Amino acid sequence: MTPDIHDIRGPKFIMPWWLIPAGIAVVVLVAVLGWALWRWWKARRRPRVLLPFEVALERLEAIRTLMEPATAREFSTAVSDIVRNYIEQRFLVTATHLTTEEFLRDLLASSNASLVENRALLSEFLHQCDLVKFAGISLTRENMESLHRSARVFVTETSKPEPAAKPAAATAATPAAPTAAAASTAAANATAAVTVTATAAKPAAVPPSTLISK
């Protein structure tokens, strides 16, 4: 019998040991990148919460369409409400449910420096709005521009954080350093006192004539 003759086989493929861990690492990396991209996309779609002064400035820009003599009352009501709402949200005080006189009276007792410093501006602004809302006084476009500008100035100025007050107790407790002149004067006085003391302690000299007579 003749032995079977077989063709030469090709090399057998052996999977490297690192291939499976590398594949798992790639899958994990793709999953992490996909999750990060999803979070980034979701954060971009989420609107940022506006600060009180940003809300007020946006609302002030929106009521520019009311700055006409025919809508003076509507404009005065809107601009007054914007400022009052801003004060409530920014300083956490009641402003929308008080009359102008009640609000200004409470403002005198306020401990907030920004509100106290702008009391005169707020008083003039709110009284002008009240005259239009309740007394029916008409406004020109220039008058409304002035009211609008006053509201913007107040919101912009009071939106800045207040500077921290320096503690007065620490300053008062620090003793003042003595000056060179004071130190020199004290040293001279001490030297003079020592000299006087030494002179008083030294016995008086007896004249020679007294010793001879004895």
Give a quick set of tags describing it.
disordered C terminus, mainly alpha
Describe this structure in words.
The protein is mainly alpha-helical. The chain has a domain at 52-158. 66% of the residues lie in helices and 0% in strands. The protein contains ten helices and no strands. The chain has helices at residues 19-45, 52-62, 72-91, 100-108, 113-117, 119-135, 141-158, 168-173, 180-201, 208-213. Helix 6 (119-135) runs antiparallel to helix 7. It is rod-shaped. Residues 168-183 and 190-214 have low confidence and may be disordered.
Q: How would the global form be characterised? A: rod-shaped
Helix content: 55-70%
Let me know the average pLDDT: 76
Which percent band covers the strand fraction?
under 5%
How far the N terminus sits from the C terminus, by CA atoms, comes to: 172 Å
What integer value in Å does the Rg equal?
A: 44 Å
Q: Please give the number of β-strands.
A: 0
The number of helical runs is 10
Biggest sheet details:
none
Sheet/helix structural class: mainly alpha
The ordered string of helix (H) and strand (E) elements is: HHHHHHHHHH
Poorly predicted tracts of residues: 168-183, 190-214
Oligomeric state as shown: single chain
